[in-house]
Structures are given as structure tokens and as C-alpha cells.
Amino acid sequence: MMAKFAYYCLLLPISYLPLGVLYVFTDFFFLILATVFPYRKKVIEENLKRSFPAKSAKEIKKLKLQFYLHFCDLLAEGIKNLSISKKELSRRFKVVNPEIMDDLYAQGKSVILVSGHYNNWEWLITSQSFLFKHQAMGIGMPMTSKFWDKKINERRMRFGMNVIHAKNFKDEIQKNSNHPIAILTLADQSPGDSKKAYWTSFLQQETAVLFGVEQMAHTYGFSVVFFITRKVKRGYYEMELKLISDDPKKLEWGEITEKHLHLLEKEIMENPEFWVWSHKRWKREIPSNIEQLKKEQNAKFNERFKGN
Q1: Is there a contact between 277 and 47 (Cβ–Cβ < 8 Å)?
Q2: Residue 229: in which H helix or E strand, if any?
Q3: Per-residue pLDDT averaged across 156-166, rounded?
Q4: What do you get for the CA distance between the two ends of the chain, in Å?
């Protein structure tokens, strides 16, 4: 009952306010985060210290405040996403080199669009269906609340995006096998099982990485395109594409994951405030037999996809 009240009587009506007005509210919220109730302060500071060991305490504090400011912008933009028009979203979120996706579509190739939680991914989810010719699909885990999961995904899908459960993506791919699709994946979250994860160096530390993009690419032969979203100015974003592979089956174990992860890392190192530092990214324990684990994973990959 409270969830319905919050959605229909608060969030949805508020979302119709101009974005500039929403920023006024979230600017006030930023002051609270910066002074009174610092959201996940310890997690953010620890993540920043480990990722930027050469930075001073003063520099880490500055980055934390810059992250809070951007985080509050995302709150305003996330609320606006509930009702933003296609026309306004098209004006605020653009692709600088769409020809990469156009060429793949012309060749009849489906695509995995991969990146991380960097800048405004919610606006991309909502706008992907009209940014590219491919049928837009997004893979994710459902929210704890069925009400919020239904309402948020209804808003995300209103222009043509198809949000699917991670457990059902194979069925959805099969249903859409007669035309090119573009599957949106944000692959920077911590995996559920450290022994099934791909381990590599990321932001100065050994990191467990989701391996689903690579497995999907090799299973279905989908092209892999990395994207990065950059903030042009407040409330305006540009998305740049980079082709990782249009024939992933020719690549070896780990190549796709290494490429998309370190392209993301480069952007984070250059403009760190736009990544989600509040996430407990390094909560997985490093396996004691990590080198043996990598050899076994490589062997299983080759047996499955290379026939040796």
C-alpha cells in the first residue's frame, strides 16, 4: 500500500516537474549527504582509496563529494525518467557514432552492448529502442518488491525496450531469432560466485568479473560493442561506441572480458566521479587457488567453444 502511495502520489507526479526544478531538490539532498547523513561513506572511501592509492586523504574526500553530487543528479534524472517524453530524451541523450550499430544491423548481426554503471544508464535503458534499429533488450535481476519491479520496468519499456529476467534470456533470444537484437548489459557488478567469476586486475586490484557477456557472445556469435556514456553538461549525455568484435568465436578465453573491462577502467580513471562507488564491488574473497582456477576455466572454455 505504501509503495503504491509513494509511486502514484509522490514520485510519478513529481517526475512531471521540469528537470531544473528536480535538481533544486537533489541539490539540497546533496548538502545533507555531504554534511549530515553521508550515504555509504565507509564503502565509498574504501573503494576510492584502494582504486587510487596514490591520492591523498584530501583528494579522496574531494572525489567522494564529486560522486555525491553526481549521484544526486542521477536521482533527479531517475525520477524524471518515469515520465520524460521521447522528444526530450532524444535531445538529452545522443549517440556520437551510431554508424557502428547501423553497419551491424545492415549485416543482420545481433549485438551485445556492454559497459558498466557509469553516468546515466537509466536514460539509455529507456531510449535504446529509438537510438538503434536493433530490437532493444535488457537483462537484469528483478527487484525485491514486485510492485516496484513492475512499475519501473513498465516505464523503462514504454518506447520499445524489452527488459527480461536473467534466468529467461535464452528463451527471449530464441523468440527474437528472426531479426537483429541488441542486448544491453552492465557487467561491472560483483558476481555471485567467486569461483565461477573471471578474475583480472581492475582499478589496481584483483577483481571478480561477470563472465556472461563472453559466454553469450561465443554461444550465439553475437557481435560485442562497448559503449561509454559521457556527461556533456548537467542533464545532457553523449554515448560513444567501440566495436570489440564482430566475430567473437575467433577470440580466445578472456579476450572480450579484458577488452570491455579495461575500456571502462580507462574512463573511470579519467573521470572517476561518474562511476557508482557506493557499490560493494570487491566483496568477493580471492580464491586461494586462483591460478589453478584460471587454468581450469580456460580449459572448460576451450572444450566448450573451441572443441579442444
Answers
A1: yes
A2: strand 223-233
A3: 92
A4: 56
Residue range 236-272, pLDDT digits in tens = 999 999 999 999 999 999 999 999 999 999 999 999 9
Mean pLDDT across the chain, nearest whole number?
A: 94
Q: How far apart are CA 197 and CA 207, in angstroms?
A: 9
> Residue 204 in 3-state DSSP?
coil
Three-state secondary structure call for residue 202:
strand
Average pLDDT over residues 147-172: 90
DSSP string, 135-152: EEEEEEPPPSSHHHHHHH
Residue 223 reports pLDDT greater than 70: yes
CA-angle at 121, arms to 119 and 123, nearest 5° = 110
C-alpha cell at 202: 581492475
Cα–Cα distance between 269 and 75 in angstroms, integer? 23
User: Given a cut of 70, is residue 308 above it in pLDDT?
Assistant: no
Grid cell at residue 144: 525485491
Place of cell 514486485: 146
Q: Which helix (H) or strand (E) holds 44?
A: helix 41-51
pLDDT of 174 reads 84
Q: How far apart are CA 200 and CA 206, in angstroms?
A: 6
DSSP state letters, 77-134: HHHHTTT--HHHHHHHEEES-THHHHHHHHTT--EEEEE-SBS-HHHHHHHHHHHSSS
| Helix ranges, 212-253 (H) | 212-220
The residue to which cell 543528479 is assigned: 73
pTM of the model: 0.94
Grid coordinates 556492454 are at which residue?
Answer: 114
> 3-state DSSP: the chain helix, strand, coil percent, rounded to 5?
50, 20, 30
C-alpha cell, 3: 509503495
The DSSP bridge pattern shows strands 205-209 and 111-115 to be unpaired
33, 255, 257, 267 from 295: Cα distances, Å: 45, 15, 16, 30
Return the closest-CA partner of residue 223 out of 197, 202, 251, 198: 251
